[in-house]
Amino acid sequence: MISVLLVGNGNVATHLHTAFLKADTIVVTQISSRNLKNIPSADLTIIAVSDDAIAEVSSKINNKLVVHTSGGCSISELKNENNKGVFYMLQTFSKGKEVNFCEVPFCLEATNKNDQQLLDKVAKSIGEKIYEVDSEQRKALHVAAVFVNNFTNHLYKIGNDICTEHKVPFEVLFPLIKETASKIEFLSPKKAQTGPAVRKDKKTIKNHLDLLDENQQEIYQLLTKSIQNSVD
User: Fold this and answer.
1) Whether residue 39 is found in the same domain as residue 96
2) At what angle do helices 214-231 and 152-165 cross, to 10 degrees?
3) Among 37, 106, 126, 218, which is most exposed with the fewest C-beta within 10 angstroms?
4) Looking at residue 108, what DSSP letter applies?
5) What is the DSSP letter of 33?
């Protein structure tokens, strides 16, 4: 059995704790990052806290292998005195939305072979997609993830706002959203790009801009220009 200590009680820690409780090879304990006076020993300590808190929290832990779960922070952010690593799951985690860890990519980093093998075992106890990714590669992945997830979700929000303002149901767009997401499994995003920006339909673009508020216009024009530059 592998003992795992989870530090944190946010979305990532909550989902990990639930998954580890179902794993036959893992014994898991969870504590709050605000309660670090009596820290249980463990084979692996996973700090699942905000990026800004990683250094402070890790500096208070003396367990033999301490890892963080951040995509945007390097392994050097850890300030514990013993072995370090990263246990990054490239997925969006929300409370109340179950996660299938078999579909989640685990991007792992350690400073030695034995620790890497331990991280692999722990990840394989709840998932299947395991990758060895260093800090620079993970940083690039995290930036890419912000574009395809966080920024895309904000565009969903804008689309929803437009639908609400004009009294049409946002759900009408769900099949289009699903088709766009599934299409890039078979086509490159560049080849999958459609719409008035690619076609340079000036009349349609103007009609769209006339419908939007100032903030939406700015985003629309920026994305239109970026799309047109990418296909020229």
Assistant:
1) yes
2) 130
3) 37
4) E
5) T
